[in-house]
């Protein structure tokens, strides 16, 4: 016998639907680019990307790093500890346009992990 109370799904609010759609679209775009983001990265990015344009400005980048640090991600924890947001942004922003794309962040994180 199925307990219908367990299967009851609360309807999403308009902001909840929008957030869910942004997560799905962002995830699909990152996977298509071969970035293979982890769930925590997707959630942090979507949370930080205040205007939903798919890139992070400096204030959005700071929010992203703080969110990732909360998940225990070591690079983000180090950046947060030293408050090295400007330095981290300058490293990640390869084309120096003042914004960071998911691809730039993945490249910077991979380089950091490789000791470069």
Labels describing this entry:
disordered N terminus; mainly alpha; 7 helices; Recoverin, domain 1; single chain; about 120 residues
What do these coordinates show?
The chain has 116 residues and is mainly alpha-helical. The protein has a domain at 37-116: Orthogonal Bundle (Recoverin, domain 1). It has helices at residues 4-7, 14-32, 39-48, 58-70, 74-82, 85-92, 102-113. α3 (39-48) runs antiparallel to α4.
How much of the sequence lies in strands comes to under 5%
Give the name of the CATH superfamily of the domain at 37-116: EF-hand
Give the N-terminus to C-terminus distance in angstroms.
58 Å
Secondary-structure element sequence?
HHHHHHH
CATH topology of the domain at 37-116: Recoverin, domain 1
Count of DSSP strands: 0
Task: Kindly provide the name of the CATH class of the domain at 37-116.
Answer: Mainly Alpha
> Mean of the pLDDT scores?
78
Give me the CATH architecture of the domain at 37-116, please: Orthogonal Bundle
Radius of gyration: 16 Å
User: Which structural class best describes the helix and strand composition?
Assistant: mainly alpha
> Percentage of helical residues?
55-70%
């Amino acid at each position: 016998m199925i307990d219908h109370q367990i299967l009851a799904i609360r309807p999403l609010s308009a902001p909840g639907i929008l957030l869910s759609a942004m997560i799905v679209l962002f995830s699909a775009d990152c996977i298509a680019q071969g970035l293979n983001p982890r769930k925590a990265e997707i959630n942090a990015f979507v949370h930080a990307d205040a205007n939903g344009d798919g890139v992070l400005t400096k204030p959005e980048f700071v929010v992203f790093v703080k969110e990732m640090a909360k998940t225990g991600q070591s690079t983000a924890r180090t950046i947060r500890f030293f408050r090295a947001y400007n330095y981290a942004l300058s490293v990640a922003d390869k084309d120096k346009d003042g914004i960071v794309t998911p691809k730039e962040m993945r490249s910077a994180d991979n380089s950091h992990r490789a000791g470069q």
